[in-house]
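User
Take a look at the entry that follows and flag anything odd:
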Amino acid sequence: MQEKGDILSRRELRRYSKQILIPEIGIEGQKKIKKASVMIIGAGGLGSPVLQYLAGAGIGKIGIVDFDIVSEENLQRQILYGAEDVGKLKAIIAGKRLEKLNSFVNIEILNIKVDSNNALKLFRNYDIIIDATDNLSARYLINDACVILNKPMIHGAIYKYEAQVAVFNYQGGPTYRCYNPYRETGESLDQLPSEVGIINVLPGIAGTYMAGETVKIITGTGEVLSGKVLLINIADNSHRILSVKGDPRNRSVAGVSNTEILLS
């Protein structure tokens, strides 16, 4: 169980000592990490490394949102799970794994689907929202709820050998809709991995970057990927950064009520 308040116990000081040694973080930064709350939506390929590294870092409260069960085809890349977990609920198994990894972290398990009726209620009590989903409808919904609540959204996506990581709605920066405008035809700049496949290490690479962006935001260190999309291709070892221009019209969703969050 996590120690109360913003005081680091001797065990916590010992556990996080290598992180505390970083001058930009130090004890004060570790206290910020301890006080932070992060919700991860999706406990699959991307969510697995994000959850493990954030729990390891000492995030005070982690929310796991996933309504899916573990299938055998998940095991190739979803490293939180083993063969004995097939058929079991991902959120529950993930929560148990994290509790074993770091007993100082408070885990909230939410075996539900995020929708327009519950998004605002779920997100309201967390500092940062992480999009580790694999479908466009969820991404637009997460974005809109984050804009309404003024929460940063950390986004990741994977496709074959390619990954992308970005931070949206951070300190008034561009939103996901600025990067990927919805089209009436349903077309999008994103391509989904469901039909084309994924090399198994790719979610680990993207998820690690996503966890890193989270820690940077919490501690106020480094350069956050706000207004930028990091593109990684492990087939040719290329890294590129795209700039995203903010469009004020994409903040009009901030006036939309809980039951009217748009997916279009």
